[in-house]
Amino acid sequence: MRDRAIPEATVGRLPIYLRSLVEMAERGASTVSSGDLAEAAGVNSAKVRKDLSYLGSYGTRGVGYDVAYLIHQVRRVLGLTQDWPVLIAGAGNLGHALSNYKGFTARGFRIVAIVDNSKGKVGERIGSITVEHIDRLGQICRREEVAIGVICTPAAAAQEVADRMVAAGIRSILNFAPAVIAVPDHVSVRKVDLSIELQILAYYEQRKAVIEAVKGGRGAALDLAGVP
Amino acid sequence: MRDRAIPEATVGRLPIYLRSLVEMAERGASTVSSGDLAEAAGVNSAKVRKDLSYLGSYGTRGVGYDVAYLIHQVRRVLGLTQDWPVLIAGAGNLGHALSNYKGFTARGFRIVAIVDNSKGKVGERIGSITVEHIDRLGQICRREEVAIGVICTPAAAAQEVADRMVAAGIRSILNFAPAVIAVPDHVSVRKVDLSIELQILAYYEQRKAVIEAVKGGRGAALDLAGVP
DNA sequence: CAGTGTGAACCTTTTCACAGCA
DNA sequence: TGCTGTGAAAAGGTTCACACTG
To answer: Which domains, ranges and CATH numbers included, belong to chain A?
Structure first.
C-alpha cells in the first residue's frame, strides 16, 4: 500500500505504537514483530499490521520491523519531525499542570504562551513563561506562529476562547473545558473531558454490579437496561 | 425498544447529552427536540434519536422529550443516581488539579483519598484530603468501598499502581499516565493521554499544510502520505 | 404537521485466514 | 519456517428516509 488517507482509528493508535517503539529502542531492540508491538500497545497483531500497512510496506517477512526506521516513519507521518508551537488559554489548575507537563516538550510540542483573562493571573510566572492577557492572543499567535491552542478555561468561557483562537488563525484545538465548542469546518477539535470519562466508567461499573446481582439470584427486581 | 446492551459509542455520548440537558433545564426548558439536543451536543439529530431509543421510548411524537424525565433516565442508565467513591494515585501536578476539580463532585464522584509513594507528599493536604501512603491503598479501598481508581503517576509507576488497585478490588480505572496498562478482563480501563491528543492534532494540522501547499501548486515534491 | 422511532442502506473498523516472501 | 501484507468476511456505527402518532 502506498500513500493516501490514513483511517482515523489508525491515526489514533500511531502515537501509542510510537511510544512503545521508542521504549523498545531505548532498551536496545533493533527489530520488532507485530506480535511484540501489539502486546506493548495493548492491541492485537492483525491490527498492528493493518495499521502499519497504511504507512507503507516497511516490514520484512519472517523478521519484523526495523525499530529505528519504523520510529522515523511514524514520526514523519504524524508530523512530529517539526516542532509545534502551542498556546494554552486558562491558567487555572489544569493550565498549570499542562504547562509543567514534561511529556509535551519531549514530543516536540513547545508551549510558547499562556493567556488568561483575570488580573490576578496575568504576570504570574509558570515555569519559564509569564501569563499574558487573553486580549494579546491574536498578536501572540501571529508572532509565534501558534499552530495548536489548548483550552483550559471554565466551560462558560470555552466558546469565546475558541472563537478568538479561530480568529487568530489557529486550526487545531484541544479542548479540556466541559463544553461542546462550535468551530468552522477547517478547524480540528479534540476534546478531553475528565468527568465524561468517569461517567462512562460508572456505566460499566454499575453494569457489573447488576450482572453480579443477577448471577447471585438476587436480581429479579433490578432494572436491566444496558445489561447483555 | 426495551433493555439490553447499549452500544459503546452511545454510552460515550450519553454524558454529553446529559450535560446539555441539565443546562437546558437550568434555563427553564421543559421539553426538547432531538434537533435541539443534537445542536447542543454537536452531533446530528438522527444520532440523538437512535441513542435515546436504546434507553426506551421516552419521546412524544410531534413534541420531543421531557427534559426532566430524560435527565432522570440518562442518569439512571449511567449509574449516576448513586455516588461513586474515587481514589486518586499520584499527588503531582495532575493529581492536584483533579483533586481540586469541581466537576467531579458535582456529578456524584466523591474523591475519598489521594495516595502517593513519596515521603514528601504523604501528609500534605489537598483541599479537605490528606495524602496517604500508597501502601495503605488496600485498606482505604476496603474501608471506603472505592469503585474507581484514577492513576496520575509517572508512566513508570502506572502498571504497579494498577496492579495494586486490582488487588484491592477496584474494577474501573481511569489512567492518565502515558503508558499502556494490563489488567484482568473484569476490570475496565479508560485512558486519557494528553500528548497523544496533541500528536493526533499534529497529524491533521500537517495534513492541512500539505493540502494547501498542493493547492498552491508548490506540492510536486512533497510527501503525500495520508493526504486524501 | 412536527417530530419520534426504526428498518434498511451505507460506511468504517476489526478480525480472519492465508498467500507470499526473506 | 516465521512473520508480513492484504483480500474477504464480520461486526459495529452512522445516516437515510419514512411510516406513524400525539
So the answer is: 8-78 (1.10.10.10), 84-192 (3.40.50.720), 195-228 (no CATH)
